Amino acid sequence: MAVYDDLVMNNRFLVYINMNKLSFAKVSGIGAEMAKEIYAEGGENHAPHVLTTPKEQLRTLRFERGLQLNSKISDKMKPGMFIPYIEIIVKDSKGKRPLYEYCVVGAYVTKWEVSTLDAAEGNVMIETFEVEHIGIEKVCLG
C-alpha cells in the first residue's frame, strides 16, 4: 500500500511579484541548471574533469492566467520591465501551510501574449507572461 500523505500537490500556490500578490492558473519553468565544461587532462586519467562555467543563457519562467476585465497586471508586466523580486510559495493540499518557496532574482519580462482568438471555440482568453531571470533559490518551509 502506497502512502500519499507526503506528496506535494501542484495546485495550491501563491505568486508575489515585487510584493504584490498576483493570481495565475499556471507557472512553469521553475528549475535550475549548471553550465559545465568537460576537460580531459593528459596522462593516465580514468575520468574527465567537470568544470563549472559562467551561464550563457537565462532561465525562463512562464506565467499563465485567464484574462480579466480591468486587470492592471498587463500594465505592470510589460516586456522590458525589470522585476527585482518574484516569490512563488507552494502550499500544502489544504492551502494552509507553506511548504516550499522559490525566490527569483534579477528578472525581466521578455514576452506578453494572449491566446488565439477563435469564434468557433468560446474558451476563456489566456494571458501569458514570460520572464527571464539570472537565478532561483528553493527554500524548504515545511
Description of the molecule:
The mean pLDDT is 85. The chain contains 1 helix and 9 strands, in the order ββββββαβββ. The longest helix has 4 residues, at 73-76. The strands form 2 sheets. Strands 2-1-7-8-9-6-3 form a 7-stranded antiparallel sheet, with no helix packed on it. It has a two-stranded antiparallel ribbon with strand order 4-5. The radius of gyration is 20 Å and the shape is extended. The protein is 3% helix and 49% strand. By secondary structure, it is mostly beta strands. β1 (13-17) and β2 (20-22) form a beta hairpin.
What structural keywords apply?
142 residues; mainly beta; 3% helix
| Alpha-carbon distance between the two ends | 25 Å
Kindly report the average pLDDT value.
85
Largest sheet: 7 strands, antiparallel
Sheet/helix structural class: mainly beta
Number of strands: 9
- What percent strand? over 45%
Elements, N to C (H/E): EEEEEEHEEE
Overall geometry: extended
Low-confidence stretches: none
Strand order of the largest sheet: 2-1-7-8-9-6-3
Measured as a percent range, the helix fraction is under 10%
List the total number of helices. Answer: 1
- Chain oligomer state: single chain
What's the gyration radius in Å?
A: 20 Å
Briefly say what this structure is.
By secondary structure, the chain is mostly beta strands. The protein is built from 1 helix and 9 strands, in the order ββββββαβββ.
Question: Would you spell out the secondary-structure blueprint of this structure?
Answer:
Layout: E1 13-17, E2 20-22, E3 26-28, E4 36-39, E5 49-52, E6 59-66, H1 73-76, E7 82-91, E8 98-114, E9 126-140
Antiparallel strand pairs: 1-2, 1-7, 3-6, 4-5, 6-9, 7-8, 8-9
